[in-house]
Amino acid sequence: MSPPSPQEGSRQRAERAATASSREDIESFFRESAKGVLVALAGNPSLQEQDLLRLLERRDLPREAVTAVARHAEARRSYNLQLALARHPKAPRPVSLPLLKFFHLFDLLRVAETPGVPADVKMAAEGTILRKLEGAPRGEKISLARRGTGRLAASLLDTSDLELIHAALDNPFLTEGHLLKVLARDDLPAVLVQEISHHQRWSHHYHLRLALIRNPLTPLACVLEFLPHMAVADLRDICRDPRMPPPVRNYITTYCARRVSRPRAVTPPAPPKDSGQE
């Protein structure tokens, strides 16, 4: 079979792409850009795993061609092809979502981290990871907390395991927004709140400090350290939070009153004796 020529119509080239069998003939169609030709090539039964993987390396591969790859006999028996399909930005949801349950933990993470993958597919991959983590070894949880997505790291923070907490808090993808959602949870382990309160990276964020001041598990020494750096209006606002122990609320109210009356020389009141915060 001669290689396709520019003068040949796309329909003729598609017919040839669908039936090409020799290595030379198949190779000639990988340079195609016409959608119909690529769809026909993806459905060619002579293509092997490496050919289909090569097609999926193209980020511009049409959605119809990705679907044709998913229907190929090789895709039904190849783990690598299924993973490449789930990571392709043009993969339709009915193709990618059912595949997630078959992947290993760190391959699911690759799906969640792949640029261009739709947000709902990434979230589904993260949810599958969390479900599989319930029975996973501790070492895998620590590894995922350290190098997983920010959402995964935050989800793993509901623990008293110090090594797991440190791994998640040091995760480069974790954000202030993630931690604000963590601190809004009920029944957090006290050690987690304490570690956030002392963490070199996170304890200086303004809105995290507000969340920590209102959290009854935050050590009182940290609360007292944070107060001079907070706006009076914000402090008064968080005093409306019913979770705050009354002694701490009263202390902050008195502190705010003194700051307003003597803004340049604030003498803090005596720390509360029975605050419920250690």
Search tags:
278 residues, mainly alpha, 19 helices, elongated
Describe this structure in words.
This protein is mostly helical. Helix content is 59%, strand content 0%. It has 19 helices and no strands. The longest helix has 16 residues, at 246-261. The radius of gyration is 28 Å and the shape is elongated. The model has no long low-confidence stretch (mean pLDDT 90).
Helical stretch tally: 19
Q: pLDDT under 50 segments (min length 5)?
A: none
The helix/strand series, from N terminus to C terminus, equals: HHHHHHHHHHHHHHHHHHH
Helix content: 55-70%
* Percentage of β-strand residues: under 5%
Quaternary structure? single chain
Helix/strand-derived category reads: mainly alpha
| General shape | elongated
Mean of all residue-level pLDDT scores: 90
Major sheet attributes: none
Question: What's the N-to-C terminus distance?
Answer: 81 Å
From the alpha carbons, calculate the radius of gyration and give it in angstroms.
28 Å
Q: Kindly state the number of beta strands.
A: 0
Can you describe this structure in just a few lines?
This protein has 19 helices and no strands. The protein has helices at residues 10-19, 23-28, 35-42, 49-56, 63-71, 73-77, 79-87, 93-96, 105-113, 119-133, 138-147, 150-155, 162-169, 176-183, 190-198, 206-214, 220-226, 232-238, 246-261.
